[in-house]
Amino acid sequence: MPDKWLVGVDLGGTTTKLAFINTYGEIIEKWEIPTDNSELGKYITVNIAKSIDQKLEELGQIKQNLLGVGMGAPGPVHYETGVILNAVNLGWEDNFPLKDLLEAETSLPAAIDNDANCAALGEMWKGAGNGAKDLVCITLGTGVGGGVIAGGNIVQGVNGAGGEIGHITAIPKGGAPCNCGKTGCLETIASATGIVRLAKEELAKTNASGELKDRLDQNGSLTAKDVYDCARNGDMVAAKVVDEVSFHLGLTLANIANTLNPAKIVLGGGVSKAGDRLLEPVKRYFDQFAFRPVRKSTELALATLGNDAGVIGAAWLVKKHSEHL
């Protein structure tokens, strides 16, 4: 093995993605395992450690050639201590000592951060960020995650909750309830879940016919992809929903950019697969609300790494950590 490898782990509520990555950010091997959150999640780090050992054996490699393991975890993380403050989907109690347990199970140095932060670091290092040191990454999936990079470093905040863009209040009065306990969060509008909710509400309110209504009647459900596909095909209800989502997302991103003046804002997650149908209207509203010097200097772009962003960003944590030792 001519080059040391990094282990990147993207921990999810149902699936954990793992990868061996070289110090240039290139994936050598990647795989997935189920996330076992039974018995207060006590098997999660054990299973990760076992999986790393099994994969090394399959590849005929030894653990001494691994620099360390980096992990992106869902929830706010205290970066210095590697304590995850709250992770409702993993079974862990609050203030869970994730870094210490991961190091004990793997016998490797570990670095832990929020999963959205890791996705942002991945896009900065090897993706759409293209090396930009001032970058905001928004992940539009089941929820809305955010990662803010300033001067090449993640903005952690006082207790690891920096960059929680999904919980910026987009609708101050009358907004839908969010899982965080607030109402009107951006997550309730611009996530895949929020887009579907808006679409169903609009269909019920207008009782309009069209392709979107037909899809709901035929399938009994809708997806965010249905909404964007139907909008692309000229469905009026879908187009109205896309415009509402674009307005709130564009306004929020403009306010973030006015505060941070990033070189790039990168949109990722499943919703970003809508491509230009997502990006173009969001950019129109962004341009409307952004301060002119910010509008001229901040580029909106689609993420390029897909599901690999998290493991690549987690590996970057290890790389940075090892350079400081």
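^ that was protein a. below is b, sequence first then the tokens
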Amino acid sequence: MEYRKLGTSGLKVSRLCLGTMNMGSKDWKPWIFNEAESEPIISHALDIGVNFIDLADFYSTGANEEVVCNVLRRVAHRDNLVITTKVGYAMSDDINAQGHSRKHLFNSIDASLKRMKMDYVDIYMLHFFDTQTSVEETMGALNDIVRSGRARYIGVSTMNTWQLAKILQVCEKYNFVRPINMQLQLNCAYREEEREMLPFCQDQGIGVSVFSPLARGILTSDLQSTRNQTDFFTQEMYNDQASKDIAHSVAKVADNRGCSPAQIAQAWVLQKSEITSMLVGADDTSQFDSAVAALETQLTPAEIYELERNYTPCDLINDYTAGKRISRMARPEISGEYK
């Protein structure tokens, strides 16, 4: 396993990060693994050298943190792990049980640590950019959480570049702790973060961890999984011809190499110098092995050209465009407007 520093911090994380959204309670989603089903995957990731574990209070409405950390206490040493959890999405019907207000952040870190049965989390991450709460309030609260010892570092996820810039500006103005990690979506079928976010993070010394390297499974040529049959987000994000053409290119390169499409798609992500770590949400141990193989897969210029030639710009994927994104295809003309 390779390890890299997260940005300019001294924290070293494995190039592969264990994504755990699929671990928790089936009461939340039908494709979630319970504790017994999750343990072999977690143990295998640790055995191959993964030290970076990604959680969120929102996943399985808290059961994710409980289930994963129950396993970790049995099979690992806490001090050897870099554990991150995220905060922001609604945890109940209470109007204050969501967002990034000081009240919710303080309540949430305590609730997360109680579920995890741990004294601290290594990285406490904003799950999105809360447009309803001032940046000064949010970052001040996170600064106090770090100073209290309940978190070692802070991170952010899934926002516009200007929003991250605003966060950094406030941190500099008030001498608050700065985020050391940006978690974002990046894959062959979604590359919009290459325009501004990736170079901005590199310039500002912020590490980047990537989720959904397989575009929610479409780059594995499998759209029939339980998750994709029950998760409307896949259809909203990747149900366009460009995504299908890109998936076909991934499959062609994989066929020529004699390996899985997943390995090729993951290799494309890992080959980018701006990427510190790639999340792997595996349904079994073999899926994690393909990510390990991807670490050693050097794509040729011709392969990269094939993987990238069908890409076209698209609407951003984040909370602010949910339900509003338009598929990458010609938009219909207004009836009777031009003749």
